[in-house]
């Protein structure tokens, strides 16, 4: 799946940072690696965009760790994530800078923001990117299609291009030099018109065994039925300190609890050994266990 794409000029590459409780999520540093690879084909400055309330310290930490410049946008009304504020403020920033690429995580928040920006900017959008390269002088992005049966190499014929990156597809960024990036701090006032963030309700389960387990046995639709979970539990009993997980369809059917779900909308794990029993290997599940082994 190919289309010609002219290499952009010096327009920057935007990274949309994700954070929680003023701590950067690991996807931020994976996005930095992706942006750096894009830069090898399309030379441009990389800027990490960080929105929130009280994010100046966080922005400095990210700039220090990556050596990349950051734009810290302080918004008093953004104590909690609000998609209306994110999309509007980043849209205005994109109009100002005319970025050639906007890179976000293929996460619930990243997809929310990226898809909305693509509409507002009338931009090309490639979701679920797992790699990139150059073919015939064109930069192409690789993603899975048809539940992982096909690897598509996709290029865009317009800019800006917005992509979301599957977690675990790129190693965390390690700069060649230790010089910290510069941080530009802006303060924006924005009263949302349509969306109000009321709070965050945590799951009643706080079990961390899935994330800490050295061995995980996961069940998918292919095990046939809930009655066969006994076989999964018997296998788990062979390995001390193991945990049982599952794909989304198993959780949706009530065979396992949500805290045991592994994948894009569940836990992201990196055990030494991972058994996938009756799991097709769709990209949404792979996103949760790429670091295994």
Would you kindly provide a brief summary of this structure?
The protein is α/β, with parallel strands linked by helices and 293 residues long.
Describe it.
With about 290 residues, the protein is of the alpha/beta class. The protein folds into 2 domains: about 15-190, 3-Layer(aba) Sandwich (Rossmann fold), CATH 3.40.50; about 210-285, TPP-binding domain (Rossmann fold), CATH 3.40.50.1220. The protein contains 8 helices and 14 strands. The protein has helices at about 25-40, 55-65, 85-95, 110-120, 210, 230-240, 250, 285; strands spanning about 15, 20, 25, 45-50, 70-75, 100-105, 125-135, 140-145, 150-155, 160-165, 185-190, 215-220, 245, 275. It has a 9-stranded mixed β-sheet, sandwiched between helices. The protein has a 3-stranded parallel β-sheet with strand order 13-12-14. A two-stranded antiparallel sheet has the order 2-3. Strand 8 and strand 9 form a beta hairpin. Helix 3 (about 85-95) crosses helix 4 (about 110-120). The longest helix has 15 residues, at about 25-40. Residues about 1-10 have low confidence and may be disordered.
């Amino acid at each position: 799946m190919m289309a010609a794409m002219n290499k952009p000029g010096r327009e920057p590459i935007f990274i949309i940072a994700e954070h929680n409780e003023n701590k950067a999520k690991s996807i931020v540093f994976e996005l930095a690696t992706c942006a750096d690879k894009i830069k090898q084909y399309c030379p441009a400055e990389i800027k990490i965009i960080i929105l929130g309330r009280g994010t100046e310290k966080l922005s400095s930490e990210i700039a220090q760790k990556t050596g990349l410049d950051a734009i810290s946008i302080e918004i008093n009304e953004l104590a909690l994530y609000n998609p209306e504020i994110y999309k509007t403020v980043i849209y205005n920033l994109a109009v100002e800078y005319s970025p050639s690429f906007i890179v976000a995580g293929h996460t619930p928040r990243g997809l929310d923001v990226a898809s909305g920006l693509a509409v507002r900017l009338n931009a090309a959008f490639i979701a679920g990117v797992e790699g990139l390269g150059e073919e015939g002088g064109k930069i192409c992005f690789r993603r899975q299609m048809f539940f992982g049966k096909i690897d598509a190499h996709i290029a865009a014929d317009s800019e800006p291009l917005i992509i979301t990156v599957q977690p675990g597809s790129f190693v965390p960024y390690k700069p060649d030099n230790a010089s910290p990036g510069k941080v530009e701090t802006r303060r924006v006032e924005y009263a949302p018109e349509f969306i109000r963030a009321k709070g965050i309700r945590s799951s009643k389960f706080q079990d961390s065994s899935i994330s800490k387990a050295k061995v995980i046995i996961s069940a998918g639709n292919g095990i046939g039925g809930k009655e066969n979970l006994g076989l999964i539990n018997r296998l788990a009993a062979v390995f001390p300190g193991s945990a049982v997980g599952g794909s989304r369809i198993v959780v949706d059917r009530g065979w396992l609890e949500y805290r045991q779900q592994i994948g894009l909308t569940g836990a992201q794990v990196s055990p030494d050994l991972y058994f996938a029993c009756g799991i097709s290997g769709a990209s949404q599940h792979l996103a949760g266990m790429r670091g295994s082994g």
